[in-house]
Amino acid sequence: MNHTETLQLRVKSITWEADGILSYELHPEPPLKDLPAFGAGAHIDLHLPNGLIRSYSLLNAPGERRRYVIGVNKDARSRGGSRYLHEILRPGDTVTVAPPRNNFPLDENAPLSVFIAGGIGITPIFGMIQRLRALGRPWHLHYAARTRRQAAFVDALEAMHGLDGAEVHMTFDREAGARMLDIPAIAATLPDGAHIYCCGPVQMLEAFETATAALPPDRVHREYFAAREAAATEGGFVVQLARTGRSLEVPSGKTILDCLLSEGIEPPYSCQEGVCGTCEVRVLEGVPDHRDLVLSEAERATNKRMMICCSGAKSRKLILDL
Ligand code: FES
Questions:
Q1: Could you name the domain of life of the organism this protein comes from (predicted)?
Q2: What is the distance in A from the centroid of ligand 1 to the CA of 279?
Q3: What percent of the chain has pLDDT over 90?
């Protein structure tokens, strides 16, 4: 558990979107009228009855205040999150939800937005596309899935092709005659001023980061769903909590968050994998060993913020704003 303020939302409907992908429409209960607003690319955290907290991107149009819609892929390696949603959660049930956060915001003023989506990575991008449609701004989508049946929102996306400069390119790499999505070619031909976004499996994101390494960082955006490297559990440093003056020794085998929780201190946290940003804290002194996928390289270099669920320390001591 953590101290993030949460909402109780009712599952109004569950919809089949593609093989292995269901969408969930969540509505507020009276007397709550409007839900907290969200921008394109935002996600919500679901606090599940089995104790897990899982982040899911919002795929409905930013600006909607009466519902949140998420898409959930049934992960064969599920540790209980997607399996619970697919097998147990039913329309009419209530779920505990932390308000939206956004680590993957859309630049609404870009002359062109180019999206690369892999599998369930289409969910935040689908919300971004709806926002750009509302603004009448151009976008190109390159969407890869194993097969057409495993790709969500295909009909809706294909119907948008050609509207307001939109282009929709689908790649189904397990179908006859398929070619792999050529991410280096997409990045190499990115028009001046265009912004490029990627969300998908780790291998796709790594290829994206390589292909876009020479582009201006403020025009390159990506969101990971899962950790890419192990959490820092080497230990051997001290964390001082500036607000109370308490100091904790972080031993080998534990993260900073582990140590805080075992001392009865419960900062906000969610994914515990360095991908959601919920556990971010300000660093007042010391040098973190960043292992998250939320901060950009430039943000990491300032050493002003860190994710305490996965990052450690390169200095002997860290002073945190906790
Ligand atoms: S809890 Fe998600 S980044 Fe730390």
A1: Bacteria
A2: 5
A3: 81
pLDDT tens-digit map of 127-169: 999 999 999 999 999 999 999 999 999 999 999 999 999 999 9
Which residue's CA lies nearest to atom 3 of ligand 1? 274
- Token pair of 69, please? 């819609």
Which amino acids bring their CB within 6 angstroms of ligand 1?
269-272, 274-279, 292, 294, 307, 309
Phi, psi of 119 (to 5 degrees): 55, -130
- ∠ CA(161), CA(170), CA(40), 5° rounding? 65
Q: How many domains does the chain have?
A: 3
Q: How many helices (H) and strands (E) does the chain have?
A: 7, 18
Q: State percent of the chain over pLDDT 70.
A: 98
CA of 241 to the centre of ligand 1 (A): 18
One domain, residues 70 and 161:
no
